[in-house]
Design brief:
This protein has about 650 residues and is of the alpha/beta class. Helices cover about 35% and strands about 15% of the residues. The protein contains 26 helices and 22 strands. The strands form 5 sheets. It has a 6-stranded parallel sheet. Strands 9-8-7-10-11-12 form a 6-stranded parallel sheet, with helices on both faces. The protein has a 6-stranded parallel sheet with strand order 14-13-15-16-18-17, with helices on both faces. A hairpin with a 5-residue loop joins strand 21 and strand 22 (about 570-575). Helix 3 packs across helix 18, helix 11 (about 220-230) packs parallel to helix 14 (about 320-335) and helix 16 packs across helix 17. The model is unreliable at about 580-585 and about 590-648 (pLDDT under 50).
């Protein structure tokens, strides 16, 4: 057969059922061979970046590698953002690019680009085929590398003349890569050491990342939580890896995490990082991150261990197997939770500092849609067992992380490491192709959605019933929020005009669509969207002034939290800049003057900002009026006086 036919036959041998892509001159032989395949369905995207995000969504929803096929030059370079997105989030992809003939590589031939060199920093491995003799072995290796160890994208560049050469097809059963041997089994001595620390800890915490999903380790993780009563905080990539309904799941942590989650991270005496990489969006100011905690770091990628935070016990291995080993050791030891007061403390924080409260802001009037409530309503109407949610990147992404419950892995897909606007919608198409049984909804912002809105054609033509809910504030919401908070409301190039009319755009692509701007109509509109048989766009009008809270300012410590709700002082947000004399400012001042809880808030968030220009002393600085020492804050929650010595 021809080299191009061997590429397609190799995909079939790997069990590939779907390829996303876009043809071109140097890929024409590959596409001609694909024409004869009865096994593979090709989804023609409208842009190569969209094709890669579709394959990414397919891979995240299934755990199987997504496959992309594009042409050379601009076709290949258009994939770079999608490849980098998958690389940062450890998603298995195989990208096949057409290339100019071997004889003219390096001569600036028409539509030539060194895609192997361009993508080298953002792929797990790459190949430029030089001979048909290596073609099938390369295809076999590429799929093996993509899904083993820490998953990631692998690129294969196929010169067009090689694709036209005759060859004998023989697909290898095994892979021989002596230099590539990922470590799956964690060191038994290190596992025992981790268990000893857990058995001795009084305030342990699990810090759960995307590795729990890649490793399919949810059952083992939940068993460990239950066995030792260890609460868990969950990153954006780990969402769904711990059921949202589990009482020990504290949910989001970090820059837009819950105040109680950040407090737990700050006060923990042991942190078990389970498939997480200590992202700056989680740690805040690293020098002040988890100052009291010993660290157990479990990761299949040894390069992550100690990269950001030194580990007292490093364990390189597959998370599922390591957690199973820990459970076996704890059972053998007859281990039991050491201190139930820790869980009680966190429950008290959780009750006091919720993500949302109806009285939290005076701006919430009957005629304004509250974005948090829209996301919560979507969550109420979705069946968690038969739905997948993707997000674009921005404020809506954080609201979704905070308010949308997910009970199972691979049901919440979002760009974490790269933060790619334009990811969520094509990823939803890929997820819908992978999971035709599921309702797939993309939560988008009006800015992000326009990055790849052309893929509405892909959904319509292929009868893919994806739903898109746009949180439409006609601005680049997250950057707008930063400009409001940190740049004196200098809104440089973040305000978007009311173009396009998204409902008319939906109609142009053959979608159903509607716009809702009345809070009373939101629930019914979401119901109509979910009930639609085909693709549907719901444009939800929200105010530009809505912000995502709580928030840790860039470069601030994790416990320096602005905008947390405090139900003890009237369910208002604390430590948020506001105009002097505004109702919220006056309410906050009155509450601060009368509430004994102001002392505690000084520990976690600084001062009460009655005046946004206030630069008064914080706890421990000269002039501070707070008389509660940092180590004594627990006594204000605990009826028994609370210190460790008192409990022993």
């Amino acid at each position: 057969m021809l080299g191009a036919e061997a590429v397609i036959a190799s995909l079939e041998a790997e069990g590939v059922d779907t390829v996303f892509g876009y043809p071109g001159g140097q890929a024409i032989k590959l596409y001609d061979a694909l024409y004869d395949s009865d096994q593979i369905t090709h989804i023609l995207a409208r842009h190569e970046q969209g094709a890669v995000h579709m394959a990414d969504g397919y891979a995240r929803a299934t755990g199987r590698p997504g496959v992309v096929m594009v042409t050379s030059g601009p076709g290949a370079t258009n994939t770079v953002t999608g490849i980098a997105t998958a690389y940062m989030d450890s998603v298995p992809l195989v990208i096949i690019t057409g290339q100019v003939g071997r004889g003219v590589i390096g001569t600036d031939s028409f539509q030539e680009s060194d895609i192997v060199g361009i993508t080298m920093p953002v792929v797990k491995h790459s190949y430029l085929l030089q001979s048909t003799d290596e073609l099938t072995a390369t295809m076999r290796e590429a799929f093996h590398i993509a899904v083993t160890g820490r998953p990631g994208p692998v690129l294969i560049d196929v010169p067009s003349d090689l694709a036209g050469e005759s060859m004998v097809f023989a697909y290898p059963d095994e892979v021989h890569l002596p230099s590539y041997k990922p470590t799956y089994r964690g060191n038994a001595k290190q596992i025992r050491a981790a268990c000893r620390l857990l058995e001795e800890a009084e305030q342990p915490l699990l810090y759960v990342g995307g590795g729990v999903i890649s490793s399919e380790a949810t059952d083992e993780l939940v068993a460990l939580m239950d066995r030792m009563q260890v609460p868990a905080v969950v990153t954006l990539m780990g969402k769904g890896g711990v059921p949202a309904s589990h009482p020990l799941n504290l949910g989001p942590v970090g820059m837009h995490g819950a105040k109680y989650s950040n407090m737990a991270m700050t006060e923990a005496d042991l942190i078990i990082a389970a498939g997480a990489r200590f992202s700056d969006r989680v740690t805040g100011r690293l020098s002040e991150f988890a100052p009291n905690a010993k660290i157990v770091h479990i990761d299949i990628d040894p390069a992550e261990i100690g990269k950001i935070r030194d580990a007292n016990v490093p364990i390189v291995g597959d998370l599922k197997g390591v957690l199973a080993g820990m459970l076996a050791t704890l059972d053998k030891d007859g281990a039991a939770p050491r201190d139930d007061q820790w869980v009680a403390d966190i429950a008290a924080w959780r009750a006091r500092y919720p993500f949302y409260h109806p009285n939290m802001a005076v701006s919430e009037t009957v005629d304004e849609i509250v974005p948090e409530l829209v996301i919560a309503e979507l969550g109420r109407q979705l069946d968690p067992a038969s739905s997948v949610v993707t997000t674009e990147v921005g404020q809506h992404q954080m609201w979704a992380h905070q308010f949308l419950p997910r009970e199972a892995p691979r049901t919440f897909l979002s760009s974490g490491g790269l933060g790619t606007m334009g990811f969520g919608f094509p990823a939803a198409i890929g997820a819908a192709v992978a999971r035709p049984d599921a309702t797939v909804v993309c939560i988008a912002g009006d800015g992000s959605f326009q990055m790849n809105s052309q893929e509405m054609a892909t959904a319509a033509i292929n009868h893919i019933p994806v739903k898109v809910m746009i949180m439409d504030n006609r601005c680049l919401g997250m950057v707008h929020q930063w400009q409001k908070l940190f740049y004196d409301k200098r809104y440089s190039e973040t305000l978007l005009d009311a173009v396009p009319d998204f409902v008319k755009l939906a109609d142009a692509y053959g979608w159903e669509g509607e716009r809702v701007d009345d809070p009373a109509e939101v629930a019914a509109a979401i119901g109509r969207m979910l009930a639609a048989k085909g693709p549907y766009l719901l444009d939800v009008a929200i105010s530009r002034e809505q912000s995502v809270y709580p928030m840790v300012a860039p470069g601030a410590a994790l416990n320096n939290i602005m905008g947390a709700i405090d139900v003890a002082v009237g369910a208002v947000r604390t430590d948020v800049p506001a105009a002097p004399g505004s109702p919220r400012t006056l309410a906050g001042a009155a509450s601060a003057a009368t509430s004994p809880c102001a002392k505690i808030d000084a520990q976690f968030g600084g001062r009460w900002e009655v005046d946004p220009q206030d630069t008064g002393a914080r706890l421990g600085q000269d002039g501070s009026t707070v008389d509660v020492a940092p180590e004594d804050w627990k006594t204000l929650f605990r009826a028994d006086g609370g210190g460790k010595e008192a409990r022993r």
